[in-house]
Amino acid sequence: MKYSTYQSIFPMNLENLQETRKEGKVRLLQVITNTLLLKLLILVIIVWVAGAGVLTVFAAPSVSNKEVIKLTVQPGDTLWKIAVNHKPERMDTRVYIEGIMRINALEDRGVQAGQVLKLPHF
Q1: Tens-of-pLDDT digits for all 122 residues of the chain?
Q2: Angle at 18 (CA atoms; ends 36, 33), nearest 5 degrees
Q3: How many degrees, rounded to 5, is the angle at CA 87 between CA 86 and CA 93?
Q4: Burial level of 103, CB count in 10 A (0-12/13-18/19+)?
Q5: Is the dihedral of CA 111, 113, 118, 122 positive or negative?
Q6: Angle at the Cα of 76 (from 101 to 110), degrees rounded to 5?
Q7: Domain LysM, which positions (predicted)?
Q8: 65-120 falls under which CATH superfamily?
């Protein structure tokens, strides 16, 4: 069969077809860009909220010199035992221990008998 008598029912306008393809590509780029921007925004919000939470947890109130009690460590005392006995009623013991460590510039949680510690007052 050399020649066909088939004729499409759709008009063959190549210019229209090329324009439609260009519009489709532009639309696809817009969708991808919008999706990436949305993901970036969500990531920024998550990092911001997490950072604010971390800063809140590790933030220690400043302690003035007037609000400090000095204590001599007795044999058998630990920072935990000292903190439990001297911390405010509703304060977490771990937070009070961090306050003791900061005000005394301690690098670890070990204390020795006879050592004088400053206790923060909150």
Answers
A1: 567 777 767 666 667 767 778 888 889 999 999 999 999 999 999 998 888 877 776 665 555 555 678 999 999 999 999 999 999 989 999 999 999 999 999 988 889 999 999 998 87
A2: 5
A3: 120
A4: middle
A5: positive
A6: 30
A7: 69-119
A8: LysM domain (3.10.350.10)
* Cα(43)–Cα(68) distance, integer angstroms: 42
Provide the token pair at 85: 């006995």
Do 97 and 52 contact (CB within 8 A), yes or no? Answer: no
Res 59: pLDDT? 64
Q: How is residue 65 written in tokens?
A: 């010199």
